[in-house]
Amino acid sequence: MKKFHVWDLERVNIRITKEFLTKINNAILSRFESKENAWREIFNKNKIPLSTFKNILKQSTQKSFFIPLDIILNICDFFIISRGELEKSISAYKTAGGINYVELPILPIKITPVFNMLFAHNIGDGTVINPKKGRLPYFGYRQFDEFYRISYVKKVEEVFGKIKYKHDYFLRSTRPHIPAVLSSLFFRYYNLTIKDFLSERARVPDTIFKDGKESLLAVLVAFIIDEGNIDSTQISINLKNEYLIKDLMKICKLLNYKSKIVQNRIAPNYWRLNILREGMKRFYEDYLILNKEYVVIDLGKKGEKIKNSFKIYARKLYKVKGNEELVLEILNKEQLSVNQLAERLAMTRQGIRYHIKNLINQRKIKIIDKNELNWIYGI
Q1: Beta-ladder partners of 129
Q2: What's the CATH class of domain 206-313?
Q3: What is the rounded distance in angstroms from the CA atom of residue 205 to the CA atom of residue 218?
């Protein structure tokens, strides 16, 4: 499993434990007569002012401020204090100049299926915020569904540790952010730039294809959460990006999920990956196994919809003649698509199409709008 240490990140400020700071101070006092002598020897008067050096070594500073990681690394390297010991002694860290921080961090950072899933979310419903004045870019995840929004934060914390946001953060925002110090690792690990996260340019990196089947499945789950539609016969993912759809098709082939790609007839700049019923069954079985190992990889209501679709299909409702009257009754009140009718009546799309065709032939209903991705029917 690939790992990244805190010193592999960019522009890191840290807090260290009282015990570790005491160890540093004892090392300084045992070798030098004063902190000023240590400052001259370690930093050659150039790196930081003497007053800053003295303040960094005070316990009171640690309680209220974060200190630059590179300064502590220089001190540890000078006194041959293990970087591993330092990493274990970090109680919190953040981006230099940033607000949100990681407390009780998980270090070193491990590249797990959850990490790769976060990458996929950052493409699906994510955005890259690129602030001015030389600050690091960071990810935001626009999600109006509360369950999926909280689930995203849980995944971030599963990988990195507890994220300390402002106390009213989630009362004000439907777009949780990944602090820049963490976001930068995604760019580095996948060797990507900001432009590589644009919706029409994004791809599944080769790195993920090398990270194993669990990571491939986690990425597919993320796209189903963000871009997927489920009915009783298949899972559909619609995107403008033809190459990204083909990447997802490649994942399906590697995981043995029967699927196909269709170009949208009405909107030809859209492409749709259909995970067919046979593939959907295998996908769901694999997902349940992955969910047991990584509880945060959770399909939520879309998972329930897949589960219930198997029950619906088993009843073969499209053969029941009485449902035709139910379709007609609903369309008499409102105009809906096949997908909307299927969800409303807990039927298969094939069953709804069967009844729609009969009702059109009987001239009881008509097509209201062909310009939508899903045709709208009404009286």
Answers
A1: 138
A2: alpha beta
A3: 14
Question: Over the stretch 290-336, which tens digit does the pLDDT of each residue have?
Answer: 999 999 999 999 999 898 888 766 555 445 566 888 888 888 888 88
pTM of the model: 0.83
Q: Which residue type sits at 163?
A: I
96, amino acid identity: A
92 secondary structure, DSSP code: E
Q: Where are the beta strands (DSSP E) in the chain?
A: 3-4, 12-16, 67-68, 90-95, 101-103, 109-110, 126-129, 138-141, 162-164, 177-178, 228-230, 234-239, 259-263, 271-276, 336-337, 366-369, 376-378
Cα torsion 28, 32, 37, 38 to 10°: value is: -30
Q: Which of 297, 126, 155, 156 is CA-nearest to residue 226?
A: 126
Percent of the chain with pLDDT over 70: 93
- Extract the runs of DSSP E, i.e. beta strands, from 3-135: 3-4, 12-16, 67-68, 90-95, 101-103, 109-110, 126-129
d(CA 324, CA 339): 16
Q: Which of these, 122, 63, 132, 72, lies nearest to 97 by C-alpha position?
A: 132
Q: Are 305 and 346 in contact (CB under 8 A)?
A: no
Rounded to whole angstroms, the Cα distance separating 293 from 295 reads: 6
Task: Locate the domains of the chain by residue range.
Answer: 18-88, 110-197, 206-313, 317-378
CATH number of 317-378: 1.10.10.10
Query: Which candidate, 283, 127, 316, 262, places its Cα nearest to that of 216?
Result: 283
Task: Tell me how crowded residue 118 is: count the other CB atoms within 10 A of its CB.
Answer: 27
